[in-house]
């Protein structure tokens, strides 16, 4: 291709531009992003940036040196594939090859939009709006005990806010972890001094209060909603790009979309995993780092090895370092290494004796070794693996 245009200047978009240059692509590269800020990393937004320990988290990438044209503060509103053109607020932009990297947008709590004091946590602007909330130690209600809810609660407690967390499921992280594994995490909320209400549903949000469906009213100087994110792909409706029921761009094994010359990477794209026998939509940082390398290779070379990673992510919550690698289902066998009451522990998931996923709390070595074993499809001895003093790689 002559001119490559990347839509979305988050982790996946930036990594695409970097990977194109690394792989020797010499043509023009344009990176278009809706946000006005220098491209930045999101994980610090719910950690150091939120607590004011870091001003921002801009990527350490020299776009001039890379000869990448940045167009920031420009939202792309449509794709006309037959003309090889994008529509933007500032007029049309032509491309020879296109990479979609528009990420995800937070799911909005119905009825809460526009209510004063209600926040989401996805962007640098969101984090900047939340910093004064923490500084003034408001009563804060967090809706959703997922990854964002846990990290925000951690920061809000560190800042001295009174925090009530409202979670519809009966345990935290219900979308990812079974009750047996998440139960000890409920205790982390309590230990931090936050009030976790499980099995609780929001009926409505008013300025200053959250009302639950069971009649309870919780005072709320601020409300932070963390109930999930969906691919930011609405602008692609009618473009001819195939989208899945989850809103993701359904890319193939080299991250090519249903249209020629169009690829998709990061939080906006799903891909078929031969490793797991299903299509995966991964909303984690590592996927936004690795996927672009495959897409760039496919773009430059015309072919690429299939993208089939062992998904990996981490979270920092309640003073703990939580890491997960792999992919498990409810029918896999759970195996504990250490007790959930220990300061550090690991859980393994086995499928017919083969390690398919590992969750490590404060045990980064287990994670590193487990990730390699999962990648290799290695069998492990459940008796040895259950002994936390036996290195996982020798189990
Ligand atoms: P994004 O980072 O969402 O970037 C997409 C960009 O595209 C955005 O800047 C958006 O404005 C822009 N865009 C969207 N639509 C358009 C359009 N139509 N035109 C132009 N531009 C557009 N993952 C971990 O593994 N560990 C963590 O600890 C962790 N912490 C996180 C904390 C927070 C607060 C958040 C929000 C996410 C966290 N993640 C973490 C997830 C990780 O940050 C994401 O997986 C990653 O940012 C995905 O990168 P992306 O480039 O695909 O999407």
From TrEMBL:
* Keyword Transcription set for record: no
Cofactor(s) required for function per UniProt: FAD
The answer, when asked if rRNA-binding is one of the entry's keywords, is no
Q: Which UniProt keywords apply?
A: FAD, Flavoprotein, Oxidoreductase
> Domain FAD/NAD(P)-binding, which positions?
3-288
- According to the entry, every stretch annotated as the Reductase C-terminal domain falls at 312-395
- Name of the protein this chain belongs to: NAD(P)/FAD-dependent oxidoreductase
Organism (species): Streptomyces flavovirens
């Amino acid at each position: 291709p002559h001119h490559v245009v990347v839509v979305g200047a988050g982790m996946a978009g930036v990594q695409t531009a970097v990977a194109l240059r690394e792989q020797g692509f010499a043509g023009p590269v344009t990176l278009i992003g809706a946000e006005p800020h220098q491209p930045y990393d999101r994980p610090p937004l719910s950690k150091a940036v939120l607590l004011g320990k870091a001003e921002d988290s801009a990527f350490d990438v020299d776009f001039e040196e890379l000869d990448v044209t940045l167009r920031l503060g420009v939202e792309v509103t449509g794709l006309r594939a037959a003309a090889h053109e994008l529509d933007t607020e500032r007029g049309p932009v032509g491309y020879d090859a296109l990479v979609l990297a528009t990420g995800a947008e937070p799911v909005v709590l119905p009825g809460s939009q526009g209510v004063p004091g209600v926040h989401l946590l996805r962007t640098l602007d969101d984090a900047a709006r939340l910093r004064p909330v923490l500084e003034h130690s408001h009563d804060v209600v967090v809706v959703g005990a997922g990854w964002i809810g846990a990290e925000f609660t951690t920061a809000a407690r560190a800042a001295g806010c009174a925090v009530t967390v409202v979670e519809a499921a009966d345990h935290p992280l219900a979308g990812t972890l079974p009750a047996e594994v998440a139960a000890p995490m409920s205790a982390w909320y309590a230990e931090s001094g936050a009030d976790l209400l499980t099995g609780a549903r929001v009926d409505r949000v008013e300025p200053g209060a959250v009302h639950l469906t069971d009649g309870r009213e919780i005072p709320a100087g601020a409300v932070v909603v963390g109930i999930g994110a969906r691919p930011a792909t609405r602008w692609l409706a009618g473009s001819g790009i195939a989208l899945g029921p989850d809103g993701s761009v359904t890319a193939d094994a080299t991250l090519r979309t249903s249209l020629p010359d169009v690829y998709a990477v990061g939080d906006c794209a799903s891909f078929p995993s031969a490793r797991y026998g299903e299509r995966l939509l991964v909303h984690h940082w590592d996927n936004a780092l690795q996927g672009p390398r495959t897409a760039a290779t496919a773009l430059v070379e015309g072919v690429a090895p299939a993208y089939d990673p062992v998904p990996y992510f981490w979270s920092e919550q309640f003073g703990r370092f939580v890491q997960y690698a792999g992919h498990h289902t409810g029918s896999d066998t759970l195996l504990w290494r250490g007790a959930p009451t220990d300061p550090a522990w690991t859980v393994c998931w086995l499928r017919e004796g083969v390690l398919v996923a590992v969750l490590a709390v404060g045990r980064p070595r287990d994670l590193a070794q487990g990730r390699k074993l999962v990648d290799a499809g290695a069998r492990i001895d459940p008796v040895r693996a259950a002994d936390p003093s036996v290195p996982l790689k020798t189990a």
